[in-house]
Every structure is written in structure tokens, then in C-alpha cells.
Amino acid sequence: MANTTGIIFDIKRYSINDGPGIRTTIFFKGCPLHCLWCHNPEGISFKAQLMHRPSRCIQCGRCVLVCPHKALEIQDKKVIISWEKCTGCGRCVTECPSGAMELVGKSVTADEVMKEIIKDIVFFDQSDGGVTFCGGEPLAQPKFLFELLSRCRAMDIHTTVDTSCYAPRAVLEQIMDKTSLFLCDIKHPDSAKHKEFTGVENAIILDNIRFLAEKRKPVIVRIPVIPGFNDHPETINTIGKLVADMKNIHQIDLLPYNTGGQSKSQRMGKQYQMPGIQEPSGLNIKELADILITMGYKVHAGGL
Amino acid sequence: MNERVKRLREQSVNTRPYISSERAELMTAFYKSDTPMQVSTPVARGLAFKYLMEHKAVPIQDGELIVGERGPAPKATPTYPELCCHTLDDFEIMSKRDRTRFDVDDHVRKVYAETIIPFWKGKTMRDKVFAAMNDKWMAAFEAGIFTEFMEQRAPGHAIHDNKIYTKGLLDFQDDIRQELRNLNFMTDPEAYDKQQQLLGFSHAIDGLIALARRYSEKAAELASHEKDPARKQELLQISAICKHVPAYAPRTFHEALQMYWFIHVGVISELNVWDSYNPGRLDQHLYPFYKKELEAGTLTEETAKELLECFWVKFNNQPAPPKVGITEAQSGTYTDFALINIGGVNPSDGSDAVNDVSFLMLDVVEEMKLVQPSACIQISAKNPDRFLRRACHVIKCGFGQPSVFNTDVIIREMLHDGKTMFDARTGGPSGCVETSAFGKESCTLTGYINWPKILELALNGGVDPLTGKQIGVKTPDAATFSSIDDVIDAYKAQLKYFVDLKVEGNNVIERLYANYLPAMMLSILTDDCIRKARNYHNGGPRYNTTYIQGVGIGTLTDALAAIQYNVFDKKILSITQLLSSMKTNFKDNPALQQQLKQSPRYGNDDDYADRLATEAFNIYFDTVNGRSNTKGGKYRVNLLPTTVHVYFGQMTGALPNGRSAGEPLSDGISPTHGADVHGPTAVIKSAAKIDHARTGGTLLNMKFTPQLLEGEGIEKLLHLIRSYFRLDGHHIQFNVVTAQTLRDAQKNPDQYRNLIVRVAGYSDYFNDLGPDLQNEIIARTEQQSL
Questions:
Q1: Which residues contact A234 (CB under 8 A, 6 or more apart)?
Q2: Residue B529 is a catalytic residue
Q3: Which of A1, A79, A133, B577 has CA atoms 20 to 30 A from the CA of B656?
Q4: Structure pTM?
């Protein structure tokens, strides 16, 4: 079998909220969407990027000395990064003794990823768990994803693809028979609003979800609940209706907005696009969940 | 819980432990009398116990249903001057220290100064033990290489099986009389020794029956003054029950609990059996009574629960007796290590033994939320998920109970030790995590051994860098080491030297106890002491296992991995450079310290480090396992720490993994704090690479936040436990962390790199969240704990 290379930014074991059972989640790096609230901003770019954790820094200054682009300096016992000069070459990361400099995004082979995946097989077997590919956008690295899915299928490991569904139909066609479960985001039913907050229209997404429905592929719809964007009961109601006739969809997950993306953006020297939003309250989520439950869906809601 | 239980529980929890000199005064009076010089030692011990039982106070608290205190009141804690006679300085320290404080009143100080200290000075077991140890042993002991469990506490920590639920103590008297009749003074050169043991046992039984009789009388007397008719009735019932048990076998659920409790009070009053006695598989023992009475309509689930809760309070009323010096440092807890086992399998056929009482007990554990008794569940592949799930809900409450044990691997551990299948299935974990065949074994933990300190010596040719003294064997200069194998060879040589020393010491200490402080109660209760007419401390039990507990596998592994990685593989620095920086506690090179911390570490399912962990285990196993003790049994290994990893850490200098001098060692088989960064499955995989089936117990601690156990989190926890057990893990326990811990994690992120929190729809490492989100989770955690 080929040993394709892809770029990922994390492998998380004991992942318990991204599909059934105990799972290992592989985070693909790079995403065609640019959601303003993105809670994994390190997953947007397809390139490796520098991340700095001041809490780990011991101000030894080694990074400053080795940086070939003069992007680093120490001021007031703090490392200051000129992000526009940084190319993500990783020299400072190699040199940093304390792990304060981190390179987010690493080129890995399918062999390497499989080696990590099989480590937790005993937990998958016990809990009916498996692997989840998310991101970023896993469908944006179709060859790599297809190979990993094929290898998992060969070992009878349950696979979940957590996707925005913003991808060419051909990609979906290629991978769908190797995928045990899709987690598909529907962020907003209105295309203009969708474009305003994510950078792309929703037509391709909804078409792809319909296509998976025609093919009777198991799909769980996920709605990230973003205050001021899609947390109106009417919006949730519309999404519920949109997929009502799809016989493969029985479950909708509500993922309440969290501020996790904020600090990650800071560590990467990025401006956070949605400052000052409050996380939705449990009461609000319950109200939205009830709408979907009334429509006959099984609903999993975070934060309740 | 109802009002009665609430009141008893509050009284127990709110009373600060204090020293009672009652026992010390009574024992001193007895030993000052002519009797001890007129009779053999075993008979004297039996009579001493009887004297204590006939003269100690018999308090009954208002509202109590189960009666019997070791001291004159709840939390009144006795001392054992024949084991360790505390000095006035000891009392001063224990009344002021932060951890395990005991109040000491003027009467205690006065009677100690005037009577007890003058009489016992030079006569205690502690005096005998230290006088018998040689200089090499003392040097290692004082340097923090190993500790000694028996220097102020007697061997014990034993667990009861089901004997007392079908036999009364008078039946045991019959067995003893039978053995006395069978003695053959013509052919058996040990006949006299056996006779004296049996007579000692017999006196002790008389003593415990006398105590129960006195409680019966006391209850009747209280009843005669009682105005409240309901309470009067209860007191009369208590009086009737205490007339029946422990002399005769219990007939009811209530009598069964009272039966055990008298036995418990007897064992822990006779000697400080470091520290406890323990009812073992209580759900199995009580179930026949429960079922019979429920069917007969003489008991309801509610009254059974009330009785169990009253029983629970009794354990909490008995703090572990005060410890001093190194023993306090290694086992600094009030916990008396009574570990009630729930679940497991039936001894006769290995079938699922979970019953209605098992579930009832989990309710009791959850409601009572007491540090003692501690509770554990035994889980076999045969036990139902719904039982484990119920336990996971209790675990979620966040006070670390119940801990979870793997019955299937425990059985294999015991078969590996040569026990029969039936006896193996009867057993389980005793007070902490060490396995024993309940009611049939003396499993004696003799002390902890400090693996990382031994590595420190191996890197310094046997010289302790803290003192400059040569306390180990001479091994080659570290500068000559050319591979990790050379390091390991030196470590092996040092380890063998110290284990030899420890075993030599144990061989003496075992004989001291057999000769000077034979235990009567434990002998009566443990098969086959009566049949063999031999004491519990002298090979009377069917199985006699001695343990030396290895400590710091995580720290040792990380230190070895750091040497291999940085010195021999990457060649970043020489071993002499490393040692010279360690000498300065990395003050000369803080960046190097950080770099060393980035080396492969145990707890991440990384074979680079884990291979060294299994090697460290195998070396220890080969050095200790299978040696003979003086009681006809063998040495086994286990890996558990109590609080010794903190003390051992204080005695250990800087280590190659970047650990600063004085920092605590890793506990049990848990990774070094903050070393495991790949989540709980990786920790479990690393821990499971150790061959648990060849141990007598291992301890794995895990931290979870309450959020991680919300919703389906409980189900995932269940699977996590089942998976660990599929991999032959012995034990796992969970700390569900509090807001305070999270705040500490915020201040010291490096210490908490493995802390996972549930954020909203997902979980993440606490460290990896921004300060705002961290604060929010802290707030939420606080809210949940209300």
C-alpha cells in the first residue's frame, strides 16, 4: 500500500465526544472555510505554524539567537514575535529547551499515523470506538484521508469523518464507502449569512449532505451554536426541517460556542475575529435542543 | 441518610482525634503485676488482652445501633507502649503538626511522664528492633533508601473471610480444646509451645466475650434509665445482641454486623496491627442474612442501610494510631486501611458474586462520604456492567471511592504465588492494594524501597551525594559508563545490596515479633493457626507472604530514559557533565534542566521509556521474588506508595530527568506528575506493560475533572476501566479534581500537563485553554461541588 503524506496538527487519544466510544482523533491541518468563531484556528492554514506558550518560556534567549529571519527578540523578560517575519521554519522550536516554542502542523506519513491509531485498539474494541478524522478539514487532503480510511477498514476499525462537507463531490464519492460515520456541520441555512461568517456559501455543503442521504450513509448533523449567528430558535428549526426527509439522519448534535479559539489565536499572533461573545447558557441550549427533539431527532447537546 | 445516622456521622467527623492513655495505663498495670513473669509469653499476651477487655470503658453513644469502641469514646485513640512508647516530645509534635494531628491532654502527658515512660523505657519492640539492626542497615534506613513498617507497628493489615458468620467464638473455643486434646507430648517436641499458644488464644476469646458481656450489661443499664420508649427498646435489643455475639454465630443482619465489629475492636485493641483489620467481602458475607430476613419480613432495605451506615461510622471513629518519625512520613494518614470489598466472584465456582447488598453498599459509600472505611469494588469480566456503572457514578462524586480492582488478575497473582483456586477466589486487596487470601494469609508489608535514590547511588559509586557517606556497595565510576546497560548494571548491584540488607533485617524483626509479641486475635481468626497451634507471627497462617514495596517506577524510568536519550543516543552531553549539573541542582544550567524534561517519559505509551519501566520492574522482581522469609513463606513484590513518595523525594537529590532535589517521586505506578501528555489511554497502556500478574499489587492514580464524567463520560470511564483490566491492570483509582486543584494547575501548569477537563461539547487539556476559559471552568467546578 502507498504511504501517502499529509499534514496534521494533533492526534488526541481518549477523545470521547467525536463519535461513538473511546476514539483517537486525527486533526488534519488546512481548511477551506474561515469561520469567525473557529475554535481550532491552528487548523486553518495548510502550512506549519509557530505557536508560542509564554507560560512555559524560561527566557533563555536561545530562540532569538537561532532565528534566521530575525523574527524574535526579548523585551521585558518576554519573547516578542514579529509574526509577519516568521516563516514557520521551526529552528527556534528545535532549540527551545522548555517546549514554549511549538510548531503546529507536522508532515506525517500514513504509516506514522496508523502506528498511533493502533495503540488504542484495545479501547476501541472495548467501547465500540474508533478513529475520528477532523480538522481543519479532512476532505481537503483527499488522498491522505482515503489511504487512512482504507487502512482502518482493512483492520475493521470504525472510522468517523468530521467534516464541513465543503469539498468536491468526487472526493466524497471516493471516501464514503470506507467511512463508518459522517459528522456533518450545518452552520446556517441561509447562504448569505453562511458566507458572511464562514467565508463560503452553503450550497455545496447542503448538496453533499443530500448526496450522502441518497446513498444512505450514516450521518450525524452537528450545529455549532454561535450566539448572534445561529442561536435563534427559528434558525435551528429551519436546519431541522432541511434534513427532515433524509432517512439517514436521526441525530443532531448541538455544540455550544466556546472561547477556546481565542487564546489559541493569541499564541499564533492572530487577531481573534469574534471577541466578546458569551458562551450560550445551558438554558438556551436546552430550548434549542427541545425544538429538535420535538421534531423527532435524537439530540446530543454539550453544556447541558 | 436519616437523622440518627446524620448525627452519628457528624459527631464522628467533627471530633478531632485525640490520645487516650486508657490502654497504655491498663497494659502497664498488667505488665507491672506478677502474672507476666509467671506464665509463658503467649499466655501472657492472651491474659493481657483479656485484662484490657475486662477493664476498658464500654461507651455507648446516644442513638448508636452498633456498639463497641477501641478507646473510651469516638476518636479517642489508644497507644501501644509495648510496641512504641511515645516520649513527651512525640506528644508535643503530634499535637502541633499539620498532618494527622492528635490532641494530647494534660492527663496523658502526666501519666506518661510518671508511669508509662519510666516502665516501658528500653522494653518496647521499637527499642528491640533498632538495637538489633546493624550499622549498614541503620545507614540505609536513615538515608531514605528503605523504611521499616514494623518499627512501631505490629504486622497485621489482615482481612477476614466468612468464618465468624457461621461460627461463634465458643465454637472456636471448642476447636482450641480439640487441638489441646490432640497434643502429643511424647512424640511432638513442639507440643509445649503449641499448648501455650492455644492457651493464649483461649484467654483472648474469653476476653472478647467478656467485653461483649459488659456491653450487654451497659446497654441494659442505659435502657433502665431511658425515658424514650423507642430508644429503650433499641437498647434492650443491643443488650440481647451483645449477649449472643460474638460467643455464638449471628442469626440476623444486625447480629452479623455487631459480630464483625466486636472482632474488629478485638484485633485493633490487642496490637496496632499497622494499622487495621478488615471485613473483606462484606456484601457476600451479609447477603444470606439480608435475603433471609427480607423474605421473612424482619428487615427492610431501609433498616439494612441504616445499620450499614451505623457500622460505617464505627470505622471512622477509629483513626489509625499515632505514628512518629519516618513511619509518620511514609504513612501519614488517619486512614486505618479498612478496605471493604464489594463485588468479585464466588470462591466455590468463580461465578459473579454481585448481589443486592453490593448495590446497597455503593449507596452507603456515596451517602456517607467518609475517608474510612474505604471501599473498593472487585471487577471480574463476569461482573455486570451495571454494577461497574453504579460504582462509576459514585467515583464521580470525587472522593476517590470506590477504588477498582481486577479480580481476574488478582486470582492469577495468587495462583502464581501457589495458592489454591478456592483460596485465591476468596481473596482480594487488603488495606491498600496488596492482595491476600482473606482469612488465610499473613501478608506482611515490611517497608518501601526508594528506586530513584538507588539510581542516585549507582551514579555515585555507592556514595550518597546528600551526605558524602559511602552507604551503598562500591560500583564503577559513572565516568566509565559507556551505555545504558552499564548504568543498569550498577543500579542492579546497588539494589541487590539494599534488598539483601532489608531481608537480613526482616529476618530478625520477624523473629522478634514471633517471640515477644505473638498476636492472639489474628491467630484465632486466620486459618490454619489453631489447627497448627502456631502463631500468626510465626507461620501459623496457611500463607505467609512478605513484601518489600518498590517506589518510584515513573521517576526511575524517566531518569534512565533521560540518560539513554541525552547521553548515549543523542550525545548532547557527557554523563560527567550531567552529574556535575545535577550536583548544583541544575542551578548552573536551567536550560539543561528544561531540555532533560523533554526526554521520553513513562506514561505516554512510548516504548523508548516504557521498555526501561518493564526492565526496572523485572530487575526488582528478580531481586526480591521467591526469597524465603522466616515463616515458611516467600517474598513477593508490589508497587504502592501511601505517602512515602513525598518523604523519599525529600531524601533524593536532583535526577537526570530534570527533577529537582527534594521533589516528590512518582506515586505507585503512576507517571511523574506532568510527564504524561497523551491522555489516560496512554497512561494505561504504559502501566499495563508492567506484568501485574507477577506482583502482589500495583497502584495507579488518575485525575479527572467532574466535567469529563458528565453525560456519556461515565460510560467511557467504564470502558477505560474494562480496557485496563483486559490488559491485566491490577488496580485503578480516580481523583475527580476540585476547583482548588484547578487553581493550583493554573499557577503551576508544568505540574498538571496531564489534566483533562471537559470544556463544552468536548474535552481538552486544562493547560491548553486560555486563562479566561480556565477561570470559567474553575467557576463551574466550584459550582458543581456545592
A1: none
A2: no
A3: A79
A4: 0.92
